[in-house]
């Protein structure tokens, strides 16, 4: 095997574990492993100054070849002497290859043997990202460690798909090595093979023989479970050359890192420390704290009394709670600074324990804390009374003939999701129709969250379908954050379903319990995801939403139970809340009166998918959404207008004769009916 440009040396190994402590030298500094590398996608770690990163102990930063190729472009780095001078950073830099961005944009690129062809989100030009261009870009950037271009597929892919991606990764790896030439920069290959042990073994063997300076484990944290990820990681590291560093890409939480070190990994990167900080999440020696919680409003103590970072030395939990609630970027900066210190301190403790022969002792001590939420202010789940386990308040668990469970409103007899299982209906009617997965792929790394108004939380099927959609995606910088705002005036239906989650398995999740206890939840594993509750009657509480919507899931009980949500006044208020944004509104109702009310309120209205016994549902769009051909489904045309005029139930409830006349004039002059309607649905 060829000599490594990094001169990696193992300084200590842990008994009873594959954990190891090592050292290697980049072009700029000596690096001690295990190491965590903060992610600086656009040549900056979000909300952090390079001096603060140095003070925290950062040894290597990770930058993104794909984004830096598009902006500022390679010529800037060539003229200014590389990324280190450009961003005022004197220590190591690792650049990824752009392979993960290829994976993250499945609908915005085409694949060939040569590479990936895609359009720049900066200026629209067509770019072919080949192994040669990836290495040329990384050479211009001047990183200390480059990554070979790979093709990543979901870890749960079929064997044939995983095999094809692995094979092209190996061919691209050889081309990447050839393109490096005599550059002194180190180059890592990336092991692929999804969850198939034989493919992983083959990939390690092929890449080990090529002479890379280190090997990375790719294709994880993209759909598999925690145990599957750990097993695959352990298999791969056991086969990798012992004299080269091992890098697990995109992972993860502190507990993920501890477990991966135990399995032989040396290097890690993840956006979690700064991403959870943006929403008030902090890792501490007393567990994970969510500073949005009201319990911290008057908390005068340090964020983590055991931490010596500048945030903990100077600022209280109360102040950080205030900054988080007011969405001040200074709060993001302070909490992010602390989280990076926490990660680096954990890595130092892990390294010291390996060298001192007490790594397994450290694992036993730290696992419970790294798994835990705030140990001093724990979330307490109320005891469940077992006297009437299938009833609570106005609701009862109902078992449909098809075998799935749903919630029955006893007094009215109305059933939530009566003909289709709750999660299936939620996916079909709301998540798939809104093209949620595709909309979360944000090519220009949009930092603003995609906001879903979940109107009528009920037993949380719609919200959890959205959560599951987000969690099925990896969360690189190309995935847009998502915020769910649920409106509900009676939480008994959710309480009842959570207590009977053997019948509602989608509720076996941290989110619903946190919503019931605190009205807020933020994912620790998927840091761009948060969910909040606005309790009370929807029309009255509508102004309390912290963010205007991009998508509205409108799943209120029918007007037989509560007429208020279906009135013209409520539709006007919803339309006003949308402002000039391109907003889409989805509801199960296809009633003529509801559609007429939405048109009168200023929406364009279209036919939605059928569900259960309903042949159609309804989609409403603001003018800005309807103007986009990609967002415009089958708008109602003049045929519907004729039926509406002949209908005897064409007006929403509770409007006067004068309002009825005004409504008719508004609908007849609506711009939707001035042009021919689209005849074929895109769904």
What is the makeup of the main sheet? 8 strands, parallel
Class of secondary structure makeup:
alpha/beta
Tell me the span between the first and last alpha carbons.
55 Å
Shape: globular
Strand tally, please? 27
Helical region count? 26
Task: Give the averaged pLDDT, no decimals.
Answer: 90
Helix content bin? 25-40%
Strand content: 15-25%
Uncertain segments are: 384-388, 677-683
Radius of gyration: 27 Å
List keywords for this structure.
eight-stranded parallel sheet, disordered C terminus, 26 helices, alpha/beta, eight-stranded mixed sheet, 683 residues
Would you kindly provide a written description of the structure presented here, covering whatever features stand out?
β8 and β9 form a beta hairpin. This protein has 26 helices and 27 strands. The strands form 6 sheets. An 8-stranded parallel sheet has the order 4-14-13-12-11-10-6-5. The protein has an 8-stranded mixed sheet with strand order 22-23-21-20-24-25-27-26. The protein has 683 residues and is α/β, with parallel strands linked by helices. It is globular, with a radius of gyration of 27 Å.
